[in-house]
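Good morning,

Attaching, inline, the backbone tokens for the sequence recovery test we're adding to the shared suite. The designed sequence is right after.
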């Protein structure tokens, strides 16, 4: 019986994580106006991978990605005007809505951005 309950719990977590997989389009308000970013998430159990693209920073690979139910976190490394920039993202998925906070990893001066997005059907 314990094995059955454990197996059901694993399937429940996998089902919740599966909603995150796919393409998401998000926006955030920056110092120069609205920023746009596309996320393509791939989920394997609790591991989150994929890529993200924006007009300002180009394409970046998602690393250190984790999924816990509807919560997710990951980092990207982007090239900002010739400088390597590591950004950390944390957030939550609720149905077809995505809410993320991004910040510069390490000593980024405390600047963060609030991203809101929708799943692309």
């Amino acid at each position: 019986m314990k094995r059955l309950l454990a197996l059901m719990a694993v399937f429940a977590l996998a089902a919740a994580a599966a909603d995150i997989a796919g393409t998401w389009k998000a926006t955030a308000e920056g110092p120069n106006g609205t920023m746009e970013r596309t996320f393509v998430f791939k989920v394997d159990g609790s591991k989150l991978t994929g890529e993200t693209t924006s007009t300002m920073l180009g394409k970046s690979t998602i690393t250190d990605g984790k999924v816990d139910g509807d919560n997710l976190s990951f980092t990207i490394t982007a090239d900002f005007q010739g400088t390597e920039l590591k950004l950390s993202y944390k957030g939550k998925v609720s149905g077809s809505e995505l809410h993320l906070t991004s910040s510069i990893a390490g000593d980024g001066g405390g600047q963060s951005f609030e991203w809101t997005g929708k799943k692309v059907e």
